[in-house]
Write a structure and sequence with these properties.
This protein is an alpha/beta fold. The chain contains twelve helices and nine strands. A five-stranded parallel sheet has the order 2-1-3-4-5, sandwiched between helices. It has a four-stranded parallel sheet with strand order 7-6-8-9, sandwiched between helices. This is SIS domain-containing protein.
């Protein structure tokens, strides 16, 4: 079992409590009601950005769009602010976008390494170093960033924290691990969480995973489901969905917990599947802590040490 990612998954409730406590003091830095906001990130951070963008709009807090940081679309639009999520602060696409926004759009960075290139390029920084990770795989940093942003929208995190503690305590159903195909579904802001759950299983355990908006799953993707499948709906379950899934022979599950806490269970499943396959969940193949592209900026020696630390 991994020494790092397992401990980092288990540490999420404490990190979320700290995020809840920070929301008030950081209110002047977080997006304000009515602001038109672009949220950017790469990989897991981009999927979390999508979840936050959909949630913020659904709560009437203001127009919010999410983009991969590699897409420079926000620079050509009239946003009031760019919010960037980057654990290491060294990812090339994020740094390049922030550099391009300098003097054009206000920028805010949520990062685990505030004295990184992204931290230096941003107008404002939220220091989430307490949620930084040693594993290549993102778990607690991503969820803590989302929880802080949720708290900034007025969401009470106490029920989510309690649900996460339950998700960590309850054993995973043994028959889940015998499935060979996994599909995650979401609705509204939880579509991004479904995509993140699927990404975790792909990168950590190398299993066949897909993810969809729940209603879109019925329009073709359902054809992949059979008795080897687990179909997991994160968040509200549309009427009739369970019956349709079960008619394929697939196992259907949905969590009666906060959606971010449900993501904790998916993280645990990914690590468990990796262990069964003899894989190191801390170091997925072909994946690095930070993607630094050729011809772009180079981190300092201290920044490189943070990226490579184990």
């Amino acid at each position: 079992m991994s020494a790092h990612v397992t401990a980092e998954i288990a540490g999420q409730p404490d990190c979320w409590r700290r995020a809840a406590a920070l929301a008030g003091p950081l209110a002047d830095r977080l997006p304000r009601p009515g602001e038109r906001v672009a949220v950017v990130g790469c990989g897991t951070s981009y999927l979390i950005a999508r979840a936050y963008a959909a949630l913020r709009e659904s709560l009437g807090a203001g127009e919010t769009d999410a983009f991969p940081a590699s897409e420079r679309t926000p620079l050509g639009r009239g946003y009031d602010r760019i919010v960037a999520l980057t654990r290491s602060g060294t990812t090339t696409e994020v740094a390049d976008l922030l550099a391009g926004a300098a003097g054009r759009l206000p920028t805010l960075v949520l990062t685990g390494v505030p004295d990184s290139p992204a931290g230096r390029l941003a107008d404002q920084v939220v220091d989430l170093s307490f949620a930084d990770e040693r594993s290549v795989v993102q778990t607690r940093f991503a969820t803590t960033a989302l929880q802080l942003l949720r708290a900034g929208l007025g969401v009470d995190l106490a029920p989510s924290v309690a649900d996460a503690e339950l998700a960590l305590y309850e054993p995973l159903p043994a028959h889940w691990e015998r499935r060979v195909q996994f599909t995650f579904l979401g609705t509204g802001w939880t579509v991004g969480l479904a995509d993140e759950a699927a990404l975790k299983l792909r990168e950590v355990a190398r299993v066949w995973t897909e993810s969809y908006a729940a209603m879109e799953y019925r329009h073709g993707p359902i054809s992949i489901s059979d008795r080897t499948s687990l179909v997991w709906c994160i968040g509200p379950v549309p009427a009739g969905l369970r019956e349709e899934v079960e008619s394929t022979g697939a196992l259907f599950t949905a969590d009666a917990v906060d959606p971010v806490a449900a993501l904790v269970r998916a993280q645990r499943l990914a690590v468990s599947l990796a262990a069964r396959r003899g894989l190191n969940p801390d170091r997925p193949r072909h994946v690095s802590r930070s993607v630094i592209l050729a011809g772009a900026f180079r981190p300092t020696a201290a920044e490189a040490a943070r990226i490579l630390r184990a």
